Amino acid sequence: MRFILASLLFSLTAFTAEPEFPLTEDSKPQPNAPKGTLIKDSYIAKEACLFPGTQREYQIYLPAGFDKTKPAAFMVFQDGVIYQTPVVFDNLIAKKDIPPLVGIFIKPGVVPAANDKALPRFNRSYEYDSITPAYSQFLLDEFLPAIEKKHGFLLSTDPNHAAISGNSSGGICAFMVAWHRPDRFRRVFTGVGTYVGIHGADQLPVLVRKFEPKPLRVFLQSGTGDNNLYCGDWWMANQMMERSLTWAGYDVNHAWGEGGHNAKHASQIFPDVLRWLWRDWQAQIEVKANAKAESKWKGYEVVGEGEWQSKAEIDYQFSMSSQNSGDVFIAGASGVTVLSPDGKTRYLQPVFENSRAQAIAAFSSDSLLASRREGEDKWLLSKLEAGKWHDIAASTETSRFSVTHSGLMILNNWRELTVVSPNGIVLNTQACKEGAAATALSPDQSILYVADQYDRYIHSYHLLPDGKLVNSEPYCRLEIKDGARDAECTGLCVDTNGWLYVATSLGIQVCDQAGRVNFIIPTPKQPLDVCFGGKDLSELFIACGDAIYKRPTKAHGIVSGQMAPIKPPLPKL
């Protein structure tokens, strides 16, 4: 009996033991491969740096025959030298399987202990596991420029000539650097990546699906024996990341096995990973080349293959809207700028004498409606007819407003919503959360969406024919930056399908008719306002303070004041 039990225990142990991952010849020193050199040094962050007080060791690999006068392709590794990288570099560079790479091996920061009885502060998880852009800023703005200057070499600024890698927390760190800065890194390898709930990385599989795909090439490795801890299951999380990247159309590859949470399997496959990452390395890695055809990313239904184009430097301070003709109106302190579909720019200035326009909206019969301030606390609603402005009603302070086809005006003054009839009579006043920054009407003009700058929710009201606003709900839940309390929502517009476009700190978030964020369109700068314009209202315009950008779309916008109500299609559940 004891023999049987012992045999069973031995069989179970043998069955669950981690397999061996012997290194290939590419990871062993080869006598004919020229050897690169390793430089060892340390970096101490100054008080004004992103990680003040931290000290870290680093090593630099310079390939044989390295020319310091020419910008070099390079690869960054978290946690120092891993994967037998210097040996692998020697061998693959000699075979010309990869370009002559500079290797940069950087360890996480440590703040030294205050005394012999104190513990140092270990920055590894804080730096590596976060999904914020802090580490990418440290790497690109502080560390890499410092070592270039100190050691007298040049690193390429071409993002196609830069790769980044790491194991475990170093893996999620590598991915986030490329995610935040695809303008500098486009090749990523993560071994047993920590895509779990430590500092928010468990959100990534969803964000990868919602954000417009970035021009990245990504290789992931994990195994069935990977960690399964309080913060998540590494094996499942890596598979979710791979599935999300594949679904979104990224150039992605993976290696799954039965290994545990270590670098054994990653080290074994590392030479082939490098060959895959650096294949055709002189060609550009672009989204168009690897995502458009196969991606299921929902945003392609709307924006297609277009890119943001800088339209003009504009004095934007107050609001932006459009009319049926496709003209876009931008209200600033010096007047109103009009961008026409034919690319021409004209100015309506001065709009008023001894006052300034605060908000502009398209109105019926190709008229414009403006809210303006005279003196300190006098506000008026004015209408542009036959080239002249006419006051139609007194008003409270108004930042933005919406207009129905029937002429109802919904004014917004950050704290309350006021519904005014076409002839200037106040029909209803509705208190709302302080911070209400923008409004928009659904295509059928029965729902009013209200953006709150200090919240992550878009509130929805039913607008009745008599001007009453009822059935308020925090209807759309927006995505927010890690550590933020709100989405910094400052602008809204809708398309003919009833999709809502929201200007936020993450870019343009697009919600379907059921209030769900389906996708996010990154923007060159943080957008302050958004509207459709151009021919057939098929271009999306954003105001970014001192500049206006536009992007072609497959969707068509709504100008509620000049269009009869349209019943949008049902949401896809």
Characterization of this structure:
The chain has 573 residues and is of the alpha+beta class. It is built from 10 helices and 36 strands. The strands form 9 sheets. Strands 1-2-4-3-7-8-9-12 form an 8-stranded mixed sheet, sandwiched between helices. Strands 13-36-35-34 form a 4-stranded antiparallel sheet, with no helix packed on it. It has a 4-stranded antiparallel sheet with strand order 14-15-16-17, with no helix packed on it. Strand 23 and strand 24 (416-420) form a beta hairpin. The longest helix has 18 residues, at 134-151. The chain is elongated, with a radius of gyration of 29 Å. The N and C termini lie far apart (59 Å). Mean pLDDT is 89; it is low at 8-15.
Offer a quick outline of the entry:
The chain is of the alpha+beta class and 573 residues long.
